[in-house]
Every structure is written in C-alpha cells, then in structure tokens.
C-alpha cells in the first residue's frame, strides 16, 4: 500500500467499511495509530485486540500483506472461522 502510493485509497476503503484494521510490521504507517478502528499490530508481537479480532472474525480482508509465521503463528488456528480475501 505504501510502496505503491495507495495509502489514501486504502484509508478511504477501511473508513467506508468502518471495520477493525490490524497492521503488520511492514504495513506500519498506512493507518494512523490514533484512529478508533485501528487495533494495532497483528501476530506474534501484536496486540490482544488485533489477535482477538482475527480469531473471532467471519471475514478477513488482507490487503497488500503476506501471511508470515509471525502473523499467523499457528496456521491451523489462524482466522479459522473466517473467509479470507487476500488482495
């Protein structure tokens, strides 16, 4: 998102959906940290809110990220109830 200059478009996207947004370490800066829908970083070094949201969601939209082991931790339990849309 950042490297392709699409930060403004991404912010419009998640603000329109008004859904929780978690970030990876490489995605930092695409979402302002002071927004009420930003849950923080996801994964091994992530926040409780981000990790809970991914485990409890029924739809996970992943934009411009890769699912490394630091994000998913255990792939058999990561977002196990969610339909994953990977853009």
Describe the structure.
This protein has helices at residues 7-17, 48-56, 69-72, and strands spanning 21-23, 38-41, 59-62, 83-86. With 87 residues, the protein is α/β, with parallel strands linked by helices. The strands form 2 sheets. Strands 1-2 form a two-stranded parallel sheet. A two-stranded parallel ribbon has the order 3-4. α3 links the parallel β3 (59-62) and β4 (83-86). The protein starts with 6 loop residues before the first helix and ends with a strand. Helix content is 28%, strand content 17%.
Poorly predicted runs are none
Average predicted confidence as pLDDT: 90
> What is the H-and-E element order?
HEEHEHE
Number of strand elements? 4
Our estimate of the beta-strand percent is 15-25%
Structural class: alpha/beta
Number of helices: 3
Strand order of the largest sheet: 1-2
Spatial extent as radius of gyration: 12 Å
Which sheet architecture does the biggest sheet show? 2 strands, parallel
Shape verdict: globular
Q: What is the percent of helical residues?
A: 25-40%
End-to-end separation in angstroms reads 11 Å
Write the layout of secondary structure elements.
Blueprint: H1 7-17, E1 21-23, E2 38-41, H2 48-56, E3 59-62, H3 69-72, E4 83-86
Characteristics of this structure?
alpha/beta; two-stranded parallel ribbon; 28% helix
Outline:
It contains three helices and four strands. The chain has helices at 7-17, 48-56, 69-72, and strands spanning 21-23, 38-41, 59-62, 83-86.
């Amino acid at each position: 998102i950042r490297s392709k200059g699409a930060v403004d478009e991404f912010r419009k996207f998640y603000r329109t959906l008004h859904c929780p947004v978690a970030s990876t370490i490489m995605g930092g800066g695409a979402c302002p940290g002071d927004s009420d829908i930003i849950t923080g970083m996801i994964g091994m070094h992530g926040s409780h809110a981000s990790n809970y949201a991914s485990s409890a969601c029924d739809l996970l939209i992943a934009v411009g990220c890769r699912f490394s082991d630091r994000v998913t931790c255990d792939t058999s339990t990561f977002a196990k109830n969610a339909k994953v849309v990977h853009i």
